[in-house]
Amino acid sequence: MQTNFSPAQLANPHVAESEKILRKCVHCGFCTATCPTYVTLGNELDSPRGRIYLIKDMLENGRPADKEIVTHIDRCLSCLACMTTCPSGVNYMHLVDHARAHIQQTYKRPLLDRLTRAMLAFVLPYPRRFRAALKLAKLGKPFIGLFEKIPALKPLGAMLKLAPASIPAASPMALPGIHAGQLAKRGRVAILTGCAQSVLDPGINDTAISLLTRLGVEVVVPPGEGCCGALVHHMGREEAALASARQNVDAWTRAIDKGGLDAIIITASGCGTTIKDYGFMLRLDPAYADKAARVSALAKDITEYLSAIDLPEPVRKPGAVVAYHSACSMQHGQKITRQPKELLARAGFIVREPREGHLCCGSAGTYNILQPEISARLRDRKVKNIEATGAAIVATGNIGCITQIASAARMPVVHTVKLLDWAYGGPRPEGVSEERLVAAE
Ligand code: SF4
Ligand code: SF4
Predict the structure, then answer these.
(1) Exposed end of the chain (fewer CB within 10 Å): N or C?
(2) Per-residue pLDDT tens for 380-422?
(3) CATH 3.40.50 location in the chain
(4) Is the pLDDT of residue 330 over 60?
(5) What's the CA gap between 366 and 268, in Å, rounded?
(6) Residue 271 CA from chain centroid, whole number
(7) DSSP label at residue 333
(8) Are 315 and 425 in contact (CB under 8 A)?
(9) What residue spans in the chain does CATH classification 1.10.1060.10 cover?
(10) Which CATH number fits domain 172-306: 1.10.3470, 3.40.50, 2.50.20, 1.25.10?
């Protein structure tokens, strides 16, 4: 694609990066076919190619964002299916991240939208605040129907709907410390405790720690870790995202300096995609660029790490049919497609892949709160495809997808590591009966 930026514009490194990306796009439109919002809404402006044109026009003309571009960029899930499809290697992720930051800096949203976003950014990345908010949400549940009738309050209704009926207790395993391996030491890793997942399902990280230590891997929970920054990053709040990234880079650098790390384990693929991008996000900060690149290189999804080490024979023989839902951040963001399925199959599960596996379930960070209608359409389409597999259980590697799919599916939805842990001798995943785990078709 031809671009027309002035030398003065290109002196801005963010614009220069976006220009490089724009020039790679050859307008072929292959990406439209796999874009969930284009498939759902049928509007070219809600396709990757349409959004690329809008972003190009806004950046080239150096103008503030307007209602039209905000509407279509807000509808983008950042699922990155377009990047998997694109034959020209267009880095849509970095382009849309830049556009979102530009929108945040130049566009004044309506008051309620601003308040909703400010509240999400204030609450979600902080486990204590999030836990308190979920307790409060119980009081708001009776008003869901009312909120859903008022367009500006729909995000509030969506938030209350997603809030779980009960909140698990915080896990002591998430506190800073070292979990020693139970066999001869075969590795040392740090684990991201993160934010929303540690409140919604602390059992995911507990299970990962338990499985890793049983396999002889020492797991460090470094002091000072926090939210990876993805939630605010996707809302265009660049400074807040970079502050989170720096905080984590510092925490993991201290852990590397203290005893070395073979990997930084992440059990939420949405966080993994962002942490693997820290090297790019902090490339312009001389104090952090190298450290961030080192952290990104060490970041591994739990399934990526497990598939690279020798696993013993499973203790149990499951036999259950599992529908594997590949989170967008897993398959498109991190290109991890093979490992979770292979691990499940090796553990004795029969793995089925739902049709249209490339399409997002509609969770996408805060998308199911901010765009509840499109999100619900994508969720229902996803659940229909999952249920058509005839599976007894759904496995996936991202807390957002677990919450989203579980809100409509008739079978249990669990993190992949919980099924693996059970097969390798751990406890039965909560909410999944023994019959479901062992029943063959
Ligand atoms: S990130 Fe997803 S929703 Fe956004 S343009 Fe690409 S395919 Fe479409
Ligand atoms: S597939 Fe790639 S090159 Fe083709 S229109 Fe989409 S982003 Fe541009």
Answers:
(1) C
(2) 999 999 999 999 999 999 999 999 999 999 999 999 999 999 9
(3) 172-306, 321-438
(4) yes
(5) 15
(6) 5
(7) I
(8) yes
(9) 7-106
(10) 3.40.50
Q: Can you tell me which residue has the tokens 């796009």?
A: 25
What is the average pLDDT value for the chain, to the nearest integer? 95
Q: How far is the CA of 313 from the centre of ligand 2 (A)?
A: 44
**Count of alpha carbons within 13 angstroms of residue 153, beta-carbon side:** 11
- Atom of ligand 1 lying closest to residue 360 CA: 2
Both tokens of 24, joined, read 């790679």
**The CATH homologous superfamily of the domain defined by 7-106:** Alpha-helical ferredoxin (1.10.1060.10)
135 CA to centre of ligand 2 in angstroms: 44
Residue 86 CB–ligand 2 contact under 6 Å: yes
Q: What local confidence, expressed as pLDDT, does residue 286 receive?
A: 98
CA-to-CA separations, 175 to 221, 373, 392, in angstroms, rounded: 7, 38, 34
Confidence check: pLDDT of 299 > 90: yes
Closest to 335 (Cα-Cα) out of 54, 81, 5, 2: 81
- Mutation pick for ligand 1 pocket among 69, 82, 95, 368 (CB with most ligand atoms within 8 Å): 82
What is the CB-side half-sphere exposure of residue 320 using CA atoms within 13 A? 25
Helix (H) / strand (E) element for 125: namely none
Which pLDDT score, from 0 to 100, does residue 441 have? 56
For 322, list phi and psi in degrees, rounded to 5: -115, 130
Q: Is pLDDT above 60 for 313?
A: yes
Cβ 273 vs Cβ 327: under 8 Å: no
Rounded distance between C-alpha atoms, residue 107 and residue 227, angstroms: 26
Three-state secondary structure call for residue 45: helix
Confidence tier at 12 by pLDDT (50, 70, 90): very high
Percent of the chain whose predicted confidence (pLDDT) is above 70: 99
Contact between residue 395 and residue 318 where contact means Cβ atoms under 8 Å apart: no
The pLDDT of residue 141 is above 80: yes
Q: Which among 122, 73, 103 is positioned nearest to 367, based on CA atoms? A: 73
Which class is 321-438 in CATH? alpha beta
* HSE (side-chain half, CA atoms, 13 Å) at 72: 24
**30 CA: nearest ligand 2 atom:** 1
Q: Which residue out of 82, 84, 358 has the highest number of ligand 2 atoms within 8 Å of its CB and is therefore the one to mutate?
A: 82
